[in-house]
Amino acid sequence: MTSAPDHPTQPTMRDAVRTRVWRNGTLELEDFPFEQISDYLEQSDCLVWADVCDPSPERIQALAEELSLDPHAVEDATATHERPKATRFATHLFITAYSARLVSNTDDMDGEVAATHVSAFVVPRGVFTVRLDGGFDIEQVVRRWDDNDDLMKYGPRALVHGLLDVMVDQYFETIEDLDEQVESLEDILFEETRNSGTEIQRRTFALRKSLAHTRKVILPMREVVNTVMRRVAEEDEHNELTPYYEDLYDHVLRAGEWTESLRDMISSVFETNLSLADARLNGIMKKLTSWAAIIAVPTAVTGYFGQNVP
After folding, report:
1. pLDDT category, 9, cuts 50, 70, 90?
2. What are the residues whose beta carbons fall under 8 Å from the beta carbon of 257, sequence distance 6 or more?
3. DSSP letter assigned to residue 105
4. Do residues 60 and 77 touch, judged by C-beta distance below 8 A?
5. Can you name the residues that pair with 131 across neighbouring β-strands?
6. Per the count of CB atoms within 10 A, which of 32, 47, 215, 256 is most buried?
7. Per-residue pLDDT tens over the stretch 114-148
8. What is the sign of the dihedral through the CA atoms of 305, 308, 309 and 310?
9. Is pLDDT above 60 for 103?
10. CB 60: neighbour CB atoms within 10 A?
């Protein structure tokens, strides 16, 4: 079990900034002023990370000027509906993706998937992340880096791996929650005491919507990880981090395959519910027909003898 973070939870206030610097692979300083980023980047033995949550235009502009970022990348980092991708610019590598988490509804145990846009600017001696809201807990990433501090000597590639690894782990948690909801639907599908199939249909459509949202987040992530993995293979002479990225890519593939199986399961639940509704309707019609046949005989007899015609 992961221990509680030493650092307090990242606030979600506008322009919340978190900074760290490692020297020769060892953490040296944390939460230093944003203005000192350039000073550390100029030192060849330093690795710098800064995170900005819910950035203001002024903060983004300051970061862009500080790192000489491409204007297109800056625009994509602040867009709310940008597609996940990894793009190489002249001065940096730009990565944008989405975290995913299931927000439960306590009324009926259903939930919808909430996504947070997370971007990263990767420069030769630093990584700078931008989150549009506090939905993605950056503390999990920090703990992952601390748990694998022996990788910090490999520079920005190790930071990027930790970031993507946490996001992919959250995909599995979200899919697992969706899987449990599908199983709960299967459990009540054949219950004779349930009121009607309308509730099943409503929950099935809600799950379909959540799963579709999740797939939009996860499926493009395969290309993101693949692109970063190729860049690491090109820059990593001794292939120290290549196995880590290959394992990460395998996890992304597994997450995508799991969403495929869940989609089939939800479709099966929906179709089975319709079939059961048709079967129940047929049963009711058979009962009505049987009672109509039974009642028809005395009705005919009494009708015949009750005629007022000689």
Report:
1. very low
2. none
3. -
4. yes
5. 53, 118
6. 47
7. 899 999 999 999 999 999 988 899 999 999 999 99
8. positive
9. yes
10. 18
Rounded Cα gap, residues 275 and 281, in angstroms: 10
pLDDT in tens, 263-279: 887 776 666 666 656 55
Cα 142 from Cα 63, distance rounded (Å): 21
Residue 194 near residue 228 (C-beta atoms within 8 A)? no
Q: Name the strands in the sheet holding 126-131, side by side, starting at the edge strand that comes first in the sequence.
A: 26-30, 16-23, 46-53, 126-131, 111-123, 93-104, 85-88
CA 282 to chain centre: 42
Q: pLDDT class for 231, splitting at 50, 70, 90?
A: confident
The reply to whether the predicted model has a pTM over 0.85 is no
Q: Give CA–CA dist 117/79, Å, rounded.
A: 8
**Residue 68 backbone phi and psi in degrees, to 5:** 55, 50
82 and 96 Cβ atoms separated by less than 8 Å: yes
* Cα 6 to Cα 30, 48, 142, 160, 166, distances in angstroms: 12, 19, 10, 22, 18
Q: The tokens of 263 are what?
A: 């989609």
| Whole-number pLDDT of residue 199 | 73
Instruction: Single out the residue of 55, 217, 37, 43 nearest to residue 127, CA to CA.
Output: 37
Question: What's the rounded Cα separation, in Å, for the pair 175 and 255?
Answer: 8
Count Cβ atoms within 10 A of the Cβ of residue 277 and give its class: 0-12 exposed, 13-18 middle, 19 or more buried.
middle
pLDDT band at 95 (very low <50, low <70, confident <90, very high): very high
